[in-house]
Amino acid sequence: MExxxxxxxxxxxxxxxxxxDKLSRQLGLAPATVRRHLDILQRDGLVTYSEVRKKTxxxxxxxxxxxRGHEVMPRSYDALLAELLQEIGSxxxxxxxxxxxxxxxxxxxxxxxxxxxxxxxxxxxNDPVGAAVAALRDRDFAPEVAQTSLGxxxxxxxxxxxSVARLDKSVCTFDQTLITRLLGTPVQRESCIADGASCCxxxxxxxxxxxxxxxxx
Length: 217
Description:
By secondary structure, this protein is α+β, with helices and mostly antiparallel strands. The chain has two domains: 3-71, Arc Repressor Mutant, subunit A (Orthogonal Bundle), CATH 1.10.10.10; 77-212, Muramoyl-pentapeptide Carboxypeptidase, domain 2. The chain is 51% helix and 15% strand. The chain is built from ten helices and six strands, in the order αααββααααββααββα. Strands 3-4-6-5 form a four-stranded antiparallel beta sheet, with helices on one face. The termini are far apart.
């Protein structure tokens, strides 16, 4: 995609939906220019729209991504498959005895998350948040991190495994385990792209206490 259209897709993805005025303000482009880009994105099957009825004045239109539009964002299905094959291939004969398929999948993605987190532990030092952001950014989760009154909030504005996660949410165990591993404290998922949300959000209320404590593990 051309630069401005890629930015439009990104804004709509992160917001869930956006109108021309919002896109115009964030892009610094004239509304007419934004409409032309939206026309091209609709033609290519990446964006759709719905009418927002108002009590007075002209109707507005809210633009959202189609399934195809979501899939043009960074994806890592090949990397996921390679890591799954490596993880499953390393299992011993008795590792899965008595376990259901869902249990095996969950444990597999937990193991992948811990392994990915371990790669960044050496970088963490006194900055586990920075290490978590680096790990998530390198894996195309497009993270945003903020300290709130509820604790540390980690917002993932892209899911590199989106289509797979929508089929089986055990995939989401990967990023949750990765974040937990690097921050050193459990995180709670508050929203999930696989459920139709515009982003995945994790929050921990006791991050400050945990980060100051001994050994993250």
